Amino acid sequence: MSSGDDSPSAASFCTASEVPDREQNANTTAQTSPSQCHDAPAKRTRHAGAGAARAHAPPAMTGKEGYRDAKLLPRELRDQCKIYLEERMYLPAMQMLSSTLLAGGHRANPTAAFIPPHPHLAFLASLAIHPKFTNRPTTSDGQAIGSRAMQYLQALQRTVGPVNANLAAAFDFEPWRKRLRRGAAASADLDLSDDEDLLRGQFVEGYVVFAKAESFWKLVGWAFNCSALHPERWRYWRVWLEFLVDVLERDYEERQRLDEGAGGEPGSELGSEASNSDDARGTQWREGSLLFRYMCSTDRRSGELNRSTIKGMLRAIFADGTESSVREFPELFADEAKPKPTAGAKRKRGLSTTLDLEREQYGDYLDEDGYSSSGSQPASPSGRQVKRMRGGKAKPAGPVEDPPPSEHLLESVGLRLRLFELLGVAIRDHSGREEGLQDLYSDFCFTLRSLHLDTFAAFIAPHGTGLPLDSLVTVIRETMEHFQPKTAPKPSRVDKAAAEGGFLTMALMEKCYLPTVASGGVDNNARYSLLVEALLRILWQAGQAPYTPELDDAVRAGVAARNDCKGGRGARAKESTRDDAARRVLVESGDRLEMLVDIIHDEGQRMDCEEDQQGTLH
Question: What does pTM read for this prediction?
Answer without folding.
Answer: 0.78
